[in-house]
Amino acid sequence: MKSVQFAYRLLPGLKWLKGYTGQDAVSDLIAGVTVGLTVLPQGLAYATLAGLDPQYGLYSAFVGGIIYALIGSCRQVTIGPTALLALMTSRHTGFGLESGPAYAILLCLISGIVEMLMAVLRLGALVDLISLPVTVGFTSATAVIIGTSQLKGLLGLRGGSGSGFVNTMKSVFLNLDKVRYGDFSLGLAAIVILLLLRKLKDLKLSNANKFVKSFLWIVATGRNALIVLISSVIAYKTCQSSDNCPFILTGKVKSGLPDMQLPKFETDILSSNGTEVHQNYANMLGELGPSMIILPIIAVLGNVAISKAFGGAGLSPTRELVALSLSNICGAFFSSIPVTGSFSRSAVNHASGVRTPIGGFYTSALVLLALGLLAPYFQYIPKASLSAVIISAVIFMIEFEVIKPLWRCSRRELLPGAITFIMSLAIGVEIGLLLGVGTDVAFLVYRVARPVLGVSKLSTTHGISYILIRPKHSSLYFPAIEWVRSGISKSLETHGSAPVILDCSNVHEFDFTAARGMGALNKELSSMNVPLFLLKASKEIIVILKESTNADIHTLDNPDDLESLLEQVPDYEPYLQVMVPLVTKLPNSYTDLEHDKRN
Amino acid sequence: MKSVQFAYRLLPGLKWLKGYTGQDAVSDLIAGVTVGLTVLPQGLAYATLAGLDPQYGLYSAFVGGIIYALIGSCRQVTIGPTALLALMTSRHTGFGLESGPAYAILLCLISGIVEMLMAVLRLGALVDLISLPVTVGFTSATAVIIGTSQLKGLLGLRGGSGSGFVNTMKSVFLNLDKVRYGDFSLGLAAIVILLLLRKLKDLKLSNANKFVKSFLWIVATGRNALIVLISSVIAYKTCQSSDNCPFILTGKVKSGLPDMQLPKFETDILSSNGTEVHQNYANMLGELGPSMIILPIIAVLGNVAISKAFGGAGLSPTRELVALSLSNICGAFFSSIPVTGSFSRSAVNHASGVRTPIGGFYTSALVLLALGLLAPYFQYIPKASLSAVIISAVIFMIEFEVIKPLWRCSRRELLPGAITFIMSLAIGVEIGLLLGVGTDVAFLVYRVARPVLGVSKLSTTHGISYILIRPKHSSLYFPAIEWVRSGISKSLETHGSAPVILDCSNVHEFDFTAARGMGALNKELSSMNVPLFLLKASKEIIVILKESTNADIHTLDNPDDLESLLEQVPDYEPYLQVMVPLVTKLPNSYTDLEHDKRN
């Protein structure tokens, strides 16, 4: 029994086999094959998007399924090539010679290693720093960039997909006279049909029989494979007979499985003046640069989003991270480009009724079969139809719906989203993402640095007036202390000289710099003969204050103790002279105090 | 009268002239001359530290005094060259030909412009981001770097001061056999005397007469000028008669005032292979790079620290910033290197009994006089004595005292300080400062992202159990929501299934991402038949929740309302079956709940 438990711990996926019924197997088989039919055209298309030969998309599509079946915990997740990661990979594949695959595969390996480090160091939480507006801005920008990068294929324009949104658009407009109408009409027709077929699923056919319903569902789900199949048949028929082929075709796809081999740590590139330049390990890492960090974070973000959408909070984030990491590390030995969970294919998997992650096995088997048997036929796939597949997939990644509620309830959150979107288009997705997160972080720091202070002039039951300062925040850290100091100075100008009580009852976080600032404030107020008291300061605050300053700052637990404290200091006696004894009470909550106008 | 008020607003310094008595003038004259006697040797030394000819230190020492007298508001502040800014400038002055002064003066102009922008955009508050441990780490590292950079001068080793701590140390150790004992003994003697003279002020001479006391005070305050004067006389005597001069001398200092001219926007440098390379405006800005931002921030930090130390919180930070900015902008037209408030000279000013910022006029006058008349004599100043002046000034910038209290009360704050110190020495002061601030900011974000949750199982007065979750923080922003979600999941595992009440009474800050997460949590808990309620949620929270999610999250104002709310939902009826009615009360404050172990 012990060895079985050990095996379970090592490969948690084995537990799915316990009580695996024939019915489970059939469900998983159907779902796995359906996902496979989606990943075949997508893989070919995404590899081209990444700037590589189409077969690399298929090389990337089978390792993840097997690894995830063994280690993953969410039955719907399918790991493989995605448009986003392909786009990010494409930055490093344009240096000519054999360097494209070398860079892509090395990036895959490094992503896997970085993901493993993130799992070990528990850094998966870094994705928490990416807020919803930034996510929306990022995915929308990515969708726009991917969409425009496919315009060339759709219009039958030759040449690479260009780098970046601006360059691609410029290149398309400059070459509009070279549009090939064969490709363009095929691509446009394919997009229209794909979008219509997508709607098929939502069709309410209450009185149709079960067979028709199933048929419609299969057509809708397998629409990518269907369109690619039909357009290939058309291309095969028209292009075999005449030299004048109206479509640009995918071209030879290398047949057979990829060799299992170590990723290459050196390669040759073509320099700008056409000479071959050798790149060693360090050169390659230098070229990959920040992608080595940002790509894994984006991969993890995608994967987390999917497993959260389908699996709820019950999943172990670490296990998911390890599964993703191993998919990339092992994938790199089979010439894979960076992979992560695909939202669209996971949705297909879910809709196809998958029961366990073993479905991924069947997907992988289908991809391997295609590599072995179908590869020769892939050369007839028109590029325009692959572009259509990509465009009709990414078009739904552009999210405008979130803008309206944000505008209505929290406008300032539009800023990080807009910065991410615009900068991603203008400069690049990595820079856009970093700037968006930077904007969000700057706001968080701003809030810590500028706590709202509730200021009110009150009197004790003995009628002694005092100024009560209540920070609305639970922290009083170094960036805030100068603000608090000047706030107190201002309140003295407004309310006149009176003992100042700083309410620390809700201040749980404090640091050395803040304590020093408080000491300086105390000194300053003393020189103006204004006593300063801390109300309900926690032990931590008092310890830090004592260590950091020599100043003796008085504390009290109840404003009514003010009188006896003031009596002890001769300088402060004037404050004890009260004209009319007043009875006022401490406000019960923050909301009683001056309202925060910034919210 | 109107024109007078306008003049006051334009030049607030004019107000000092109102009622300016003869006594004020005498006090300001004495203080101004004393500061002048300090800035003369310091200016010569700091210019050398910056990698320039000595006269540039004097060019930098007179504009600030005049500008600050007109605009500044703190009588003690004296603006001029400082060791820190000289060190930061020295990074850009080592490219040969006439490029050194060109870079330094351009940096001065740009610093002034950036400071003006900081004043206009109210970015002066950026210095709030520099915590005390980082400040200490930074100034200590700077002191060490400046100190070691003077070792060469002190030991009589020829050659530039080298770049960075590591290189300088290496170069000194490799050249130990070339130490010139004349310079070394002079320098060492000068340091010892300077440190002793510094102590002179603290001497308690209760029974000495007033004249002796004043004499000692003058000697102690003017010690730098005195040492430089004496060592120059010695050098003059020994070096004029023989060719075998035992000291390396400062060499010719250009006599006369600097020309008033536009800073140069182009220059020539020597490339590494010895050819002249022309640098245009863009090249020069590229070389200055991040210094254009970091140097002004450091300058402002220094200035703020001084005006705070002497002027209290009553000063207008914007006015100070404008004064500093104009000192640099105008200075750049008189060949000044970047300037800021000097702590040591401001202290001298204070101790000399300055009454108004007009004292700065007298300092400037003395510097101009020295440029006109004394410059020919400056060439006899031994470099070793200038090094001694610098070393005995910066040695007190190394602060170890802060480590002990930090260790005792807030150890985690040692980290940003240590990172700043080590990285400043190892890589450079700008990088060190940025990494230190980055560490502090990362901690702030970490605290926002990981709020402490107080979890307790309680019962209403009707005996219905519920789980109360109380965030100890006042904010619930996007980085925290996943953490809260998993915290609630865990508390359900620990305490068993029960209605969950999230206490929002102290949550004042909330955002869209957090609201979406809350919606997802609500959905997830619903699917587990666990009801979720928000206790005392503010209007803002409810509005954002409504806009961001379709989910209907229940709110309540008192846990005792739980019963009636549960009755409305049939699914939740099981929670109403209570065995024994219990009476427990809500805890009154956070401290009643599970104690935060992280503090």
UniProtKB/TrEMBL annotation, chains A, B:
Q: Does the keyword Phosphoprotein apply?
A: no
Q: Name one GO cellular component term.
A: membrane
STAS domain location, by residue? Answer: 474-546
Q: Which residues are in coiled coils? A: none
InterPro entries, A to Z: SLC26A/SulP_dom, SLC26A/SulP_fam, STAS_dom, STAS_dom_sf
Name its cellular compartments: Membrane
Does the record bear Membrane in its keywords?
A: yes
Q: Which residues cross the membrane?
A: 25-46, 66-88, 100-123, 129-148, 179-197, 217-236, 293-315, 321-339, 360-378, 384-402, 414-436
One of the protein's GO biological processes: transmembrane transport
What keywords are annotated for this sequence in UniProt? Membrane, Transmembrane, Transmembrane helix
Topological category with respect to the lipid bilayer = Multi-pass membrane protein
The protein's name in its UniProt record: STAS domain-containing protein
Organism equals Stomoxys calcitrans (Stable fly)
**The gene coding this protein:** 106091061
